[in-house]
Amino acid sequence: MEDIILRTTELTKKYDNRVVVDGLNLEIKKGEIFGLLGPNGAGKSTTMNMICSIVRPTAGTVNLLGKNPWKQKKEVIHKIGYIPQELAIHGKLRAWENVELFTSLYGIKGNKLKQTVEESLEYVGLLEKRNEFAGKFSGGMKRRLNIACAIGHQPELLIFDEPTVGIDPQSRNFILEKIKDSNRNGATVIYTSHYMEEVEAICTRIAIMDNGKIIACGTSEELKRLVREDGDDITLEEVFLTLTGKRLRDYGE
Amino acid sequence: MNIGYLIKNNIKLMLRNKWIIVVMILGPVFVIAILSSAFEDLMKSYEKVDSFYVGYSVEQQSVFADYMDQIKVAGEESGMIFTEYPEGDPEELMRKNELAGFVEFGQDRYVLYQSADYKIEGITLEYFISRIVGQAAGNILQAGTAPEMDLPVEELEYMPAVDSKDYYGIVYIVYFIWCGIVCISGVLSSEKKNGISKKFQVSPISGTNLFLSKWIPCVGVIAGGMAVAILVCVWMFGIKWGNILWSILILLLSVMAATAFELFIYYIFNNLAVTIVAVFTVVWVMGFVGGSFETYMFSSIPEGIKKLSPIYYIDRVLVEYSCMGESSYTGSCILFMLAIIIICAAGALFVDKMRKGGRA
Q1: For residue B203, which residues of chain A lie inside 8 Å, CB to CB?
Q2: Three-state secondary-structure class, residue A201
Q3: B281: contact with A, CB 8 A cutoff
Q4: N or C, which end of chain A has less CB nearby within 10 Å?
Q5: Of B5, B13, B202, which has the smallest distance from its Cβ to A77's Cβ?
Q6: Which residue in the set B16, B204, B357 is minimally distant from A56, CB to CB?
Q7: pTM of the predicted model, to two decimals?
């Protein structure tokens, strides 16, 4: 039996009477790159926030690495690397200081910390810029630094929440390559995005989310076959259109 | 876990906000320079005087007649010896009998004469009489009679001989300490704006450590900034701090209490702009009551209200150290500061736990 790294059961989040995530059932296996695809406002980030124990669910359960992250946070938190949609870095700290700050939160210190900081910066191609202030970085470099701040403790599960928003194609390709690279090195990846081509390019399985619900889940080919039996000559955009009756760009992206 | 790196980086962030550091150091220096010279003459009245003689006369139906025995006792305890002169011209009586002042108590008003040869004594007498009249008027208005009067002897006892430079040099260091939230505003703003607080939630750092990682560097930076401001003021204005070791202890406790209080307010509102407005408003009121603007010795604010302000305790203790070398308020000041530190830190952690636990 394949290891299940994350399972959500009827996961629900309501704000007042508005249902943002509606009875979500997900299973993510160890070693996958799992893509959560959907337009802005679909509930992807709220789902990630509930999985990471940032937002408490209204109903349902989360089982992360065999634990309840709300009750056994200490036991699972070391194994997660969370890359939020926001650029969670201090502009007035140098690149290495940012990585040091976030890596030290996981109990790494002294020479080991120094070494980890160097390795993390090298991994995202920012070693030469280590002494520059993060505030002076381009959008793409900030995104890469954001990743470097989350990988130093070598997490089993990497959660990327829209990591390529607002950056140039080169930086985007670099980040996607690094995500695949992390997965090859053994990390399971959850990747949320509203860019279909990115999700299709790197994810082994994809869940399409709309209005707080998973409307389809499977490999890219399986999703395409939901629309056309042979699955040929069809894009994920067309799959999304067929399943939701809307195009992603209808959401104003 | 080791929060040393977090503390170190928060200190770096605070120190890189150069303008705020400059304002924190130069702010008190400027305010002290302006206020100490503006109130120089007024503060001369704080110089301690030896016993002096005061003459008085009372009309038969005067509302003060019932209080005269108490006034004399209170005056004696404050170094004023009252002697009755039922008849005669006040100015002539003052000249002949070497009186520092003369008070004519009329039906419901009084006339105060001050001798040009006893200026400081005259100001002290004026303060004493104005306090008594205020007290008596209050009693009469409340009771419609002349009941037992609680004279402000205690307040006169702590009229220290402090000059305006020492007084404002001390109280504005205290006031700026309580505005210290600005030092960490850059860190708080960056954490909120960049979603760093959210990222902390997906890390092993506990709420207590997170609080300490802000509180400790903030205390360090404010204490360092104020130490520089104090040294500059001592060098420029020659401010006397009296009991140095005890003053340092009280100042350090004040920084710790002020920082805990300000972080508590931030944890409640979770919004930096609202926090700064709220903190500055509360600190202004505490300063107003506690002697940051009008000196606490001559302030007309009732003693009970003054004692609600932590700034009052700090100002009073430090001013008394400066001019008397000791203060009977030291113990209560330390207890007040410790209570603020404990209650505010616990309150902040409680609010944080509630917010994270029930985060919508």
Answers
A1: 77, 102, 105-106
A2: helix
A3: no
A4: N
A5: B202
A6: B357
A7: 0.79
Quickly list DSSP for A16-43: TTEEEEEEEEEEEETT-EEEEE--TTSS
Q: Indicate which of B184, B198, B202, B210 best probes the interface with A, i.e. most A CBs within 10 Å of its own CB.
A: B202
- Helix axes B4-15 and A95-104, enclosed angle (nearest 10): 150
- Token pair, residue A210, equals 């709309």
| Cα(A81)–Cα(A200) distance, integer angstroms | 22
Q: How many other C-beta atoms can be found within 10 angstroms of the C-beta atom of residue B326?
A: 12
Distance between CA atoms of B201 and A82, rounded to whole angstroms?
A: 10
Do residue B5 and residue A52 have CB atoms under 8 angstroms apart? no
- Joined tokens for residue A245: 């009756």
Is the CB of residue A85 less than 8 Å away from at least one CB of chain B? yes
Please report, in tens digits, the pLDDT of each residue of chain A (253 residues total). Answer: 458 999 999 999 999 889 999 999 999 999 999 999 988 888 999 999 999 988 999 999 999 999 998 888 888 999 999 999 889 999 999 999 999 999 999 999 999 999 999 999 999 999 999 999 999 999 999 999 999 999 999 999 999 999 988 888 898 999 999 999 999 999 999 999 888 888 989 999 999 998 899 999 999 989 888 887 776 778 888 888 888 776 555 554 4
